[in-house]
Amino acid sequence: MGAVSEEMQRHYARTAASGIVDAADQTCGWIIDLRGNTGGTMYPMLSGMTPLLPNGTAMTFRTRTGADTPVTIYEDGAGIGRTAISVGVVTKIADQPVAVLQDAETASSGEVVLASFRGLDNIRSFGTNSAGYTSANSARPLFDGALLVLTESLYVDRNGMSLAEVPILPDYVTSPENAEETARAWLQDRGCN
Fold first, then answer.
1. Integer distance in angstroms from the first to the last C-alpha of the chain?
2. Are 85 and 42 in contact (CB under 8 A)?
3. Which of 50, 84, 187, 191 has minimal Cβ neighbours within 10 Å of its Cβ?
4. Which of 56, 55, 43, 51 is nearest to 10 (CA)?
């Protein structure tokens, strides 16, 4: 998402969340396509997925000293400590299968979204390993105007597995081109035609 205005981030998140909720009655299963998602800010993407994610800790940022900062899904969006971008209180869609597509370009905050779906029942990922940019960085200005970017924490999934700067492996390894077809077959096996 990059440096996008807060208004555009809210619009993106609300459009995604309302689209999911509005389509739920006519939908049997979902495909979330994170292929080519090189990151940006995680909040619009996660808040947009709020209907498909249970409330509570989705993943955690862990420092080298073991201090954890949880990324939480709330009734109205996602954030750290509070909802960062609200989509309004949404209906949770917990009984439908979700297939998540990933590839080597799924990176950074795209991997936050990927990690947030890991470990949930009835959710599987398809494709190739993600990029492995599973760390949180901060930029510190120096006296001469240069920026020093420091890695401050690493991703940990909801089951406590460290994703420390390594690619996230899919549940079903396929070529990027075949990920969607394999995901659709998996959804059909769960009764979605």
1. 32
2. no
3. 191
4. 43
